[in-house]
Amino acid sequence: MTLLDLQGISFAYRQHEVLAGITLSIPEGSVVALLGPNGSGKTTLLKLMLGLLKPVQGRIRMHGRDIQLMPQRELARSMAYVPQVHKEPFAYRVFDVALMGRMPHKDFFSRYGREDRRIAREALERVGIAHLAERPYTEISGGERQLALIARAMTQGAHLFVMDEPTNGLDYGNQIRLLERLKQLSAEGNTFIFSTHHPDHAMAVADRVVMMRKGAIAYDGLVDATIHQASLMDLYNVDVRLMPVEEGVCVCVPAVRLCGCKGAAAAEKQCGSC
Amino acid sequence: MKTIPLLCSAAVLVGTMLVSLALGKYPLHLTEIISFISFKLFGNGSFAPERLELLENLLIEIRLPRILTAALIGAALSVSGAAYQAMFINPLVSPGILGVLAGASFGAAVGMVFMKSWFAVQISTVAGGFVAVAITLGVARIYRINSTIMLVLGGIISGALFSSLLSMVKYLSDPYNQLPAITYWLMGNTTMADRETAFKCGIPICIGIVCLVCMARHLNVLSMGDEEARALGVNVRRIRIIVIICATIISTLTVVMAGIINWVGLIIPHIVRMMIGPDNETLLPASALIGASYLLVVDDVSRLAFNFELPIGIVTALVGIPFFMLVLKNTRKGWQ
Fold first, then answer.
1. Three-state SS across B62-98?
2. β-pair partners for A250
3. Are strands A160-163 and A79-82 parallel, antiparallel or unpaired?
4. What is the C-alpha to C-alpha distance for residues B121 and B6, in angstroms, rounded to an integer?
């Protein structure tokens, strides 16, 4: 069943067009990876899905309802934003950060109650950082901070998680641990959309991939069918090799050349210096 | 909200108030004050008529208004400082960030030079503060960038405008009577405190503080950044406007009561944050209580340390600056 449906979305910052004619549907329970060079409009697309930006043209529907017409609080109960790991000036406890996810469930004057605290604690347990609850958010590692933000998203009660480069700034081990956690949460029925610069990450956890270039969708489809040597070389204009490692596992490695031949040209020429 | 730190802060405030009541040119014993209060409130015990008259005059007419004034100012400046620090995601922001104090000073100076009644001066002070913040919001709006940066820049512009206007009024004023009065006022002092002003300003200040405390959860979320706050279902624009209105009301009223008192709104939230953490649900009420106690202590120092009364604004700066330098050494505890 379609969870999020984007129809002919265009967006511009002032006169500068960023996205044009994006049509996309995201099925419930899927993990969708968003690939594309810098400036291709990935973050803008994510913000449009969250209702943080208004499309100039087109509609975004969630379960058939136009998200522009839904109150921000109601939207926040069904989809959550997991931003890039950031440094906060204020050292909130990890628990307090998770508790902030209860905001869309509270009236203006009502305060957090026992139930809210229980939900926040449970979310920290589910992402596996319950032991950090009392620690200042500013003093835990980047990977743990990303998990805290995911816990906050879960506390929101959302089933759709929109993540902007979740593995950015994490060390190698934390990147993989985060992907594992994501896979596990998706098996529990949650839907994920995440942008990334690593085709490997898309292949590891996503079942759908959307490849963007210059504000439009260049490729869109199942991961196995869509991420291949030709599409990656076309998208990024570099030379890469895709190799199967074992059953169902593929790696993408860059073919670094000295001669300066790039993309498809290099593959065609098979230039001697490489 | 954590109750224990709040109860402790409240106890500190009550203690400071009692001690401040006892201190003065005519020192009183703390036990006598407590029995006087219990006599007044519950009718317990008894007093000789002359003694009772003396105590009523000294405590209720003279010391209480001043104590209330100092406590209200301390609470108001600390809460608005803490709220602004969360909203601007910057722990170095003070209540004057949007130009409110500069505008109110200008308003007060205009009142002193051109108006006859003290009430008119007070009205002019409030008007000055509001006009300055309105200009700040207007500047932020002209550039149509709905960000805190534009608000801060607007505040700088509006603050600079009103400082120069203030200089102009000072230049035009009579240098023998008006100029010293303005200068003395701008140093910040609680000597003018009277019961009527304390009550008139006290009620809106208390309402403003309660409103800000009610928005503590929203401020927590706002300090994660605008986009995250909106993704958490918060109407960022509305919350920001309410916070600005509340903070503007309570800060201009402090100027009405006692002129310009700097540093309190910056250092008190800092210190409290280091003690109990940055969660605004506890931080805001605790800042109000501790800020009130702090200004009471400073007021006691300013009226008792010398043979003459030192303007309280000078003392807050003199105490605040070294204190702030000490605090900065420990900054990593409260914020980074």
1. HHHHHHHHHHHHHHHHHHHHHHHHHHCCCCCCCHHHH
2. A244
3. parallel
4. 36
Which tokens is B190 given?
């609680």
Lookup result for tokens 């035009």 = B172
pTM (2 d.p.):
0.89
pLDDT in tens, A12-30: 988 889 999 999 999 999 9
In eight-state DSSP terms, residue A84 is P
What residues in A contact B273, CB-CB < 8 Å?
90
Residues of B in contact with A82 (CB under 8 A): none
> Does residue B4 register a pLDDT over 60?
yes
Instruction: Report the C-alpha gap between A79 and A153 in whole angstroms.
Output: 8
Q: Which residues contact B155 (CB under 8 A, 6 or more apart)?
A: B97, B98, B99, B136
A156-170, B32-46, B195-209: least confident range: B32-46
Site from B232, B235, B270, B274 to mutate, A interface, most A CB atoms within 10 angstroms: B232
Helix (H, G, I), strand (E, B) or coil at B234: coil
Q: End-to-end distance of chain A based on CA atoms, in angstroms?
A: 47
Please say if the pLDDT value at position A268 is more than 60: no
Burial B57-70 (b: 16+ CB within 10 A, else e): ebbeebbbbbbbbb
Angstrom distance (rounded) from CA A167 to CA B146 = 29
Q: How many CB pairs under 8 A join A and B?
A: 81
Residue of A90, A97, A106, A152 best to disrupt the B interface, most CBs of B under 10 A: A90
C-alpha gyration radius of chain A: 20
Among A91, A108, A111, whose Cβ lies nearest the Cβ of B334?
A91
| pLDDT confidence band for A260 (50 / 70 / 90) | low
User: What ipTM was estimated for this complex?
Assistant: 0.88
Whether B296 contacts B67, CB under 8 Å: yes
Q: Which residues of chain A neighbour B220 with C-beta distances below 8 Å?
A: 92, 96, 100
Q: Do B335 and A104 touch (CB under 8 A)?
A: no
**pLDDT by residue (tens digit) across A30-83?**
999 999 999 999 999 999 999 999 999 999 999 999 999 999 999 999 999 999
What SS3 state is found at B268? helix
**Average pLDDT, whole number, for chain A?**
89
- Locate B200 and state its tokens: 């008139």
Query: Three-state DSSP class for B222?
Result: helix
- Pair type for strands A208-213 and A216-222: antiparallel
**Minimal CA separation from B326 to chain A, in Å:** 19
Query: How many residues would you count in chain A?
Result: 274
Instruction: Tell me the C-alpha distance between B334 and B313, whole Å.
Output: 26
